[in-house]
Design a protein that fits this description.
This protein has 14 helices and 25 strands. It has 477 residues and is α+β, with helices and mostly antiparallel strands. It has 3 domains: 12-271, 2-Layer Sandwich (BirA Bifunctional Protein, domain 2); 288-386, Rossmann fold; 406-474, C-terminal domain of ProRS (Translation Initiation Factor IF3). The chain is globular and about 80 Å long. The two termini are 29 Å apart.
Amino acid sequence: MAQKVTPRSEDYSRWYTDVIQMADVADYSPVKGCMVIKPYGYTLWEHVKEGLDRRFKETGHVNAYFPLFIPLSFIQKESEHVEGFSPELAIVTVGGGKELEEPLVVRPTSETIIGHMYAKWIQSYRDLPVLINQWANVVRWEMRTRLFLRTTEFLWQEGHTAHATKEEAEAETMQMLEVYRDFAVNDAAIPVIEGRKSESEKFAGAVNSYAIEAMMGDRKALQAGTSHFLGQNFAKAFDIQYLDETNELQYVWTTSWGVSTRMVGAVVMVHGDDLGLILPPKLAPIQVVIVPIWMNDEQRDDVLAVVEPLENKLGEHVRVELDAREGYSPGWKFNDWEMRGVPLRVEVGPRDLKNDQVVLARRDVAGRERKITVPLGSAVERVVGMLDEIQTGLYNRALDFRESHTYDPKDYDEFREAVAHGFARAWWCGDADCETAIKDETKATIRCIPLEQPSGQGRCIYCSEVAEEMALFAQAY
């Protein structure tokens, strides 16, 4: 491509924006804080959706849709919820040229309106559990925005479930956290740490919030998905009750959970390099691109006679594109597809025809090891196998990167150094004052309290008081 990507080492933020725009993933909207997701980027998001939606349905959930507009009074019914979201609300006061009797909130999340509907739908224990997900857009009035990571409007899924018992709701919360972990690891090739959010970081209105946290290429953390145990907070606010088997009225127990287009940003930042995107094969819009090479019309016909049947054969197994565009050199095409992060390139030229071979070029490998030559007859088998290797290799590389930048500081001086360069695992006493002081002094927050905990006790990294849990600290997006 004519333009050059800003090197990650020079300006990571600029690199990220360059890659997203130059790879045709997204562009800025004329509305501040919003983005236009271009076809290539939207296809990537569709593959995220497909991977998650399949898992939702396998765990018994069904899709539905709820309105974009929510009465302001609904938001105000749950005190923590309104306090947490009020700075981010977009409110409609005029409709059809007239002032509305009640202002409407543009959906920041849907617990309230879904709670209202569940109160109508749930009457008996026989109506439970309710396991609903919706794919939607939401609006949160952000002051500092960045493509995919934090935008005023974004796309996501939000699951909302209602259960007869606390135990069922807690099990649902943890089940969906595991669904997110499984997707991140096996589809996005992103290693994540599962954990509980601290009181100050949890979702407004939740009893407990859980998250998967990932390390980006600049060693900052990104919250990639959340799952919330809401207890009976929203059930009581919206009077969601049911008659149990003894004919007694009970409040339901609810959960909510979500992953957004932020996941696309995570894929870019975890895997990309100075040449552009590197996409995990399971999510890549195009998994394999075939670039035919010729110098004249006769060579063109000979090469296309081979690569067109190859495209058809590969198409039975993978998402493949044949780039037979006129007017572009092979080198220009190579750079274009590398920018777009296509996992594997197949090159076929006159010399390859003579030798009955093709050249495979991996996007995830640099230098001479990137290319290998394979017989034409085994090309399909080798391509399919190599995509599996790339998928696994990307995950392992990201895991090695995270582990090499995760520290176990022994004192506060070491801690300050650690969070300036990556993740820090440290004992925390549970006091919000210590959490706030650490944030003020280091810009690091508690990303989560990992589910996997060491045995015994320790001393709080800040105040040295006895601590029962170890927390994961990092600077974050």
